[in-house]
Design goal:
The complex is a heterodimer of chains A (112) and B (112). Chain A is mostly beta strands and 112 residues long. Chain A has no helices and eleven strands. Classes of the chains: A mainly beta (112), B mainly beta (112).
């Protein structure tokens, strides 16, 4: 069966510091991968998605970036965090031509 | 741009009663409509979905209906239980892609 991992689970970072969040999927190949952000008490905002290695589509302009160095690895990064980057970051995957998306456990980021 | 409206934002029901959450989408090409349940601090979990070639789908106490003409779909939970308390999100597929547009969420409280 497929499993999706995210780490770290929680993170507290000062404004202006860099960020790297990692997501990996097991038990499947060539998944579509997604990064979402959820502000406290709010909905899900799609940040990036990827249909293959090195293929990244950005949904919103921001100081975040994403990379997919391996088939089942998706990384979210920032060079300098802003207070507004605080939130619950969720990675999700879907199987190639399938619509169903499954979420990872999330990373709760607090920028101080 | 594409949009999914979700109502109500909060809903309180007595245990055993039914709950209905409604969503309206704007992209007539959307053809997949999932519903997610998110408990406090947890990841969203896919609970039911429906495709545009189906008008209704049921899974035990939950059901989803779709009206393509009116571009709206609804989640129905019967015989509600306290463990149904959570935030529920609807979503619609973005035309021609496997991306989702999410609704803003409904906080359901089932009162014992």
């Amino acid at each position: 069966s497929q499993t999706i991992h995210q780490w770290p689970a929680t993170l507290v970072q000062p404004v202006g510091s860099p960020l790297s969040l990692e997501c990996t999927v097991e038990g499947t190949s060539n998944p579509n991968l997604y990064w979402y952000r959820q502000a406290a008490g709010r909905g899900l905002q799609l940040l990036f998605y990827s249909v293959g290695i090195g293929q990244i589509s950005s949904e919103v302009p921001q100081n975040l970036s994403a990379s997919r160095p391996q088939d089942r690895q998706f990384i979210l990064s920032s060079k300098k965090l802003l207070l507004s980057d605080s939130g619950f970051y969720l990675c999700a995957w879907s199987q190639g031509l399938s619509y169903e998306q499954y979420f990872g456990p999330g990373t709760r980021l607090t920028v101080t | 741009g594409e949009n999914v409206e979700q109502h109500p934002s909060t809903l309180s029901v007595q245990e055993g009663d039914s709950a209905v959450i409604k969503c309206t989408y704007s992209d007539s090409a959307s053809n997949y409509f999932p519903w997610y349940k998110q408990e406090l601090g947890k990841r969203p979990q896919l609970i039911i979905d429906i495709r545009s070639n189906v008008g209704e789908k049921k899974d035990q106490r939950i059901a989803v209906t779709l009206n393509k003409t009116a571009k709206h779909f609804s989640l129905h939970i019967t015989e509600t239980q306290p463990e149904d308390s959570a935030v529920y999100f609807c979503a619609a597929s973005y035309s021609g892609t496997y991306k989702y547009i999410f609704g803003t969420g409904t906080r359901l409280k089932v009162l014992a």
